Structure formats: C-alpha cells, structure tokens
C-alpha cells in the first residue's frame, strides 16, 4: 500500500513539474483553483 501511495505521489509531482516546464503551469494552476473552490464549497 505504501509503495502504491509513493508511486502516485511521485507521478503527481513529476506531472506538475512537467506542466510547469511545458505550459508555464496553466493546468496545474487550474487544478489547484478547482480544488480550492471545492474545498470552499464544503466549508473547509
């Protein structure tokens, strides 16, 4: 289970870094904004 979690975290971090390099972080910023709005909708 820990190995799967570690692989998922590494994949997300590397995808975010690749997005920052190729598209100046456009998709990472959009995903972060969406998560922020979801958190706000649930009142956290």
Report on this model:
The chain is mainly α and 44 residues long. It has one domain (1-42). Helix content is 86%, strand content 0%. The protein contains two helices and no strands. It has helices at 2-23, 26-41. The longest helix has 22 residues, at 2-23. The radius of gyration is 13 Å and the shape is flat.
Distance between the termini: 28 Å
Largest sheet, strands/sense/barrel? none
Structural class: mainly alpha
Gross geometry? flat
Which residues form runs of ≥5 with pLDDT under 50? none
List the helices and strands and how they pair.
Blueprint: H1 2-23, H2 26-41
List keywords for this structure.
mainly alpha, 44 residues, 0% strand
Compact overview of the structure:
By secondary structure, the chain is mostly helical.
């Amino acid at each position: 289970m820990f190995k799967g979690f570690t692989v998922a975290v590494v994949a997300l971090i590397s995808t975010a870094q690749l997005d920052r390099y190729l598209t100046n972080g456009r998709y990472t910023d959009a995903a972060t904004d969406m998560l922020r709005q979801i958190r706000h909708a649930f009142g956290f």
